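Sample entry (150 residues):
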Amino acid sequence: MAKRKPTLSDERLADIWNVRGIDYAEGELAGFDRLISSAVSRCLADDEDNRAELADLVSLVLGERVSVMMLDAYASEARRGQRIPASRFLALIAVTRRFDILDAILREVGGKALDRSDAQVYRLGRRYLDSLHASRRLRETEAEIFDAAS
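Predicted structure, serialized as tokens:
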């Protein structure tokens, strides 16, 4: 039996500028739980720590016991009854530092995730845009003043 391609594919992870629009149609997010499970699986598979260490780290930051068996269940796209709570998913993202995976999930619901470094670049970009808008408003005001004086 051939191994199934994960819902969170390399292509989906790499497509960082495609933020999906939501139409609020019936069943639009059907299968979203499989995407989350696939994201958990990627976090676990791609991390240099073993699953026991990751389970311990998630347990530590949450202050509650999260076992390797729980992480394995959350990572299974086939086990639709074992959904990961948002707190555990976000703790797993934090301890694995896989903000690219969080970003891929958020893009599916119309959002975008920024890590600390990206947030600084975003802040710089926003300030640059603000300065462009301020310069445009200044030029418009100058034109109003000097055109009215002529």
